[in-house]
Amino acid sequence: MKFLVLVVENIRRNIVRTTLTSLGTMMLVLVVTLVFTVLTSLDKVTTEKSSNIKAIVTEKWQNPSMMPISYAAGLSAGAADPTDPKAVHPQDSMTWGFFVGSTESDPTKRGFENLFFSFIMDPEKARTMFDNIDVLTDDQARVLIDGIKKMKETRNGAIIGEGRLAKLKKRIGDRITVYGRNYKDINLELEIVGTFPKEVSQYSDSSMIRRDFLETELDTYKASHNNKPHAMAEKSLSLVWLRVPDRPSFDKLTEQILTSPSFTNPAVKCETSSTAISSFLDAFRDIIWGVRWLLAPACMLVLSLVISNAISISVRERRTEFAVLKVLGFLPWQILTLVLAEAILIGTLSGLVSAGLAYGIINGVWGGLPFPIAFFPKFAVPINSLWWGAAMGATTAFVGSFFPAWSARSVRVSDVFAKVA
What is the value of pTM for the model shown? Predict the structure, then answer.
């Protein structure tokens, strides 16, 4: 305890230097924490699972995938033969289409602030099949559950993420008109009936509308254009998600789908969600590699140099003090430990405070880290960031202060007092 008190007192002796060192540590730990937030989130969604596997069925030879809506029923059943007792049936399923539009009617004024991106689907499946929402409690997902109930009663109802609502300057209960971009000449009159849970920031900029509502709009278009169907009428199905319990079930399900004659024009492919997302992220592979192996290590190196410089200055100023301590009976290893402890205490507390502020502000105030990459608009800072920050601060402080501490340990009493004399 006395040793700890001595460490704290030494830190307090030069408040300005301690404060500047702490601020430098906090800034660099913040950068590394944000980098790790993005990387760990991407690693999580691209890691293969051995159970509770989600499969994605898409068009084989075209990206973006655009399959006929007639595929929906068969694929949702996993192309299972009802007469085959060994056929694998999905535990759950979800169909996805995408409607991209704008709330601005004038094409010259359209921008990100009035963008409207929506999933076309059965709203009830959002509760059981959406990543990260399917694991929430009913209390956590209450705002979504209430919105789904209202969508059952409101055919043109829409659930819109809080981030997108803020950009559109709208709230639940408002009505909006969305002018289609991928569904050209299809303009949707929507009523906002709900939003996504705050706990899941990845859907903050997304929306959800009923598939049967869009199909009705396509039928209306056909009737008003001399019975000519819309160009997207037979291309409105983009993805089919299927949930299976384990890898053997997934392999059997894939075989059923790929060998079925019902899904050959266009041909389809079936892969795990992690594999599909990994393929989608290939375009960002070099950026992710650079962030992981260049940016993060560079920040750690700079942080070590900052701490090393600060501790080196302190050691040079305190050479006489260390000589006196040796005269009083302090052993070299005790002086080494004293200097290391000072640096590690500053680094640990600074890293913990930095990570704590990042966790509280980014998740609590911003609703996630706004770093759009692929189809991830935001990333939630994980609770593990608290020990990341403390560990990064402590580790870099140890590395940066070791040589200055060794220099303090090696102070020669005779040399110091000879210069004083």
Answer: 0.72
